[in-house]
Specification:
heterodimer, A: OB fold (Dihydrolipoamide Acetyltransferase, E2P), 2 domains, 1 helix, elongated, B: alpha+beta, Arc Repressor Mutant, subunit A, 4 domains, four-stranded antiparallel beta sheet, 19 helices, coiled coil (chain B), Znf_RING/FYVE/PHD (chain B), TFE (chain B), Transcription initiation factor IIE subunit alpha N-terminal domain-containing protein (chain B)
Chain lengths: ~170, ~475
Amino acid sequence: MFYLLKLIKEVELHPKFFGPNLRETLKNKLTAEVEGTVSGKYGFVAAVPDVEKYGQGKIREGTGFATFDVTYFCIVMRPLKGEVMDCVVTSVNKVGFFAEAGPVQIFVSNHLIPEDFDFNAMEDSQFVTTDESIRIRQGTEVRVRIVGTRIDATEMFCVATIKEDFLGVVGDPT
Amino acid sequence: MSVLSPTEIPAPFKKLTRLLARSFYAQPQQSAEEPSKKKDSQKGDQAGLCIILLDALVEQGWVAEDELAASLQLPASKPLRTALQYLCKEQLLAHETHTQKRKRSAADGMVSARPEEDDDAEREQRRPGKEISLYCMDYPGLLDATQLRIHLLLQGLRDRIQDRAAELIYQCPRQDCQAVYSTLRANELISFETGEFHCEICKSVLDARLGDNVVGDDALRRQRNRDAKKLLATAESQLAAIQELVAACKKRKPCPDFGTFRSYYDARRDAAKRKATQGGQRDGRTTEAEIEIDLEGHDAAAQAQVHVPKAQPAWLRREGQKSAEAAGQELNSARTSDAAAAAPAESIQEEFKKAWLAQVKALRALPAGAAPAATASLASGDIKPDPDSEVEQVAKRSKISHEPIKVEQTGVADAPATATLPDEGTPASMPMDTCTDHQAAGALIEAGDDEDWEEAVPATTAAPKPDDPEDEWEDV
């Protein structure tokens, strides 16, 4: 799920940027530092749409660098237990399959795949239904429900299920 | 909660109890936590014991353990108690323990000459009384326990089939490693070459933990799943009979309940009393006749005493009254003798009228000065103070004596005399302007200054009220 948050970050700026485009430079630096990172508290920071306030710069003694307290808005993504999301299968093996939904990596264990799917290692690794009408292989779009999350300081990992009504394959690459 | 007699228990409850006894509670089971102490041969001795106990208890309310054992011709032994406790623990039976008070024998009350005997008596008293264990069927508990057990059993099987556990636990099969991982770390454990999870420490392929102490691969998991489905179908078919009975029992509301032993015992005692009183009324002896007799006696006695004059204060007494009192006493004695003879009410009234006339005549025969006042006081009870009587004279005297003092103290004749008048003893709170003659007299009586009034004090409270005969008789 996505959230819009207002956060404060201390941004350090080289003295060479002290000039007419200081604020733009600050915003670029902030975006480069924040976007794409995972914070254990808030989740994955997807974007910085706006900066609310640039604080007064303080010059550090000895280095000449200035630090600014920047108050900014950001869009964060945080997967929650019970959330249903669409994802793309990245790899299939006999213990289950891995999928990705943007920055989130998802694993669906074989005990959370319906009983009528069987693992087929003969050709391309895939889960196939007994009537061979539905296949789960690399690139398949799958709708899953998240049943467990693990968010570390640097990565997010989820365990999901497709063993429910209205979950499963929603699109095939072929 | 309704306290029932065992005969009122609906049939489905009895049938359910018997069915459960035969299905699940045939003999006491050792719980998983408790280590089994007994040998198998000893266990076999108790086979069917719980069935016998439950069948017996279904037909009874609260029953003592000893009585139960006697009625079943079982020895009151440890296996019996174990079986009963097992059934209590399974919430089929309710249990209460009562201590029977030790009966105090006659010898205990006597003081013995020797000190050792005293010690024995004390020790005997301190010894706790006999404990009695009481048991009865706990139908609400039985119904709840049965429903919960069946629900948990079926739910467990359904969960096993659906296999909805969010995280699957993986375990390293190596005896010296035994590392445990969950699917939340799948991305760290997976080896994309083999497509399997590998232990981070020893790199061996991990096994999934499928259930309680069962470790295996996907094939085993599927096999277990199929077994669970079969088991669920079997369980549902076999439990159908019990579930039907449970549904029938649930429709019967309120659920039969014997309540506590105290409430059960009280209800039984009340029922027995009611039965006894109903039986007594059929004898034909009604209490109405007794009531009639009582009323007659009371009326006669009351009528006999109606017009006995009340003791009057000395200051109201006249010579004529004294003679009237004496006449009344004579009359009273005559009437009571009449009442004692149990004459009919009409004849008593006739007698009374005659006596009344005789009394009036006697009063008229008295000297002319005293007679009118006395007759008036007796006939109407309307006693007005005679202007020449002692009361009036004393009151006037007191008034006259107050006046000079009042004028001297206040200087204003109209001002209320709220100051204390120690000489005369009038209460300070009583204003003299509002004080009537009678009140002044009363004040004097309270103060007790006048010797004549001291004698009259007890009589002042008894002002005659002939309209209210009961009040009159109270003081007689």
